[in-house]
Amino acid sequence: MKQMTTVQEKRRTSDFHGTALLPNDQCLFCQRKNKYVKRKQDVLVECVAETAKNSIMNAAEKKNDSRVLGITETSCPIAREAHCNDSCRRDYTRNISHIALPSSSDITQSKLKASHSQAFQYVCNFVQKRIIDGAVIERITMLKENYLTYLQSRHPQEYNPKYKTYKLKQKLQKHFGEKIQFWQPSYRSELVYSNEVPKDVLLKRHLKMPHQRNEGFKRLL
Hints:
- This protein is about 50% helix and about 10% strand.
- The chain is mainly α and about 220 residues long.
- The chain has one domain (about 5-220).
- β1 and β2 (about 40) form a beta hairpin.
- α3 (about 65-70) packs across α5 and α5 (about 105-130) packs across α6.
């Protein structure tokens, strides 16, 4: 994989490592911040403590739930950030004894999906923090490089250097909708920028990008 050598690229990489990957004020299961049971707030607790993790993982395996598996597995760096409502955890792990365990091929596929789910969540947090909130323009190839770097470091068995850029683009479009835009200049790879930031602000940010040709982006704005 291409080495990142510039100061700007190193800073972008450090931004990735400093991103919070899972909100600790959101339930792992219902994905809500506040839940009330009989008019009382169901307080969020750490749901991957050893006393609860085994039952959650067992339920996730039987349900073939790649999202929950990806978060609760031991090697996942965001497992310690997972919180849940106790009522949601009980509902999730209730009555699973009758569910047949998936086949080995199903388990392999589930682990593959879980690994890519983690990598995609990693990139999504970066896009939200840097591109949308920070009004910074990035290239789709840089996002793909960080996606693959995450897989290579956390799930080397799932690493695929031939992973197609268009697949990541489609996933980002589905996840963010109109919040982000893509533009293909006549040189190099597509630019990714926020649709929520005024175009004059984007232009000023783009002009500060090193070694860029700005004429095409000016015409786009």
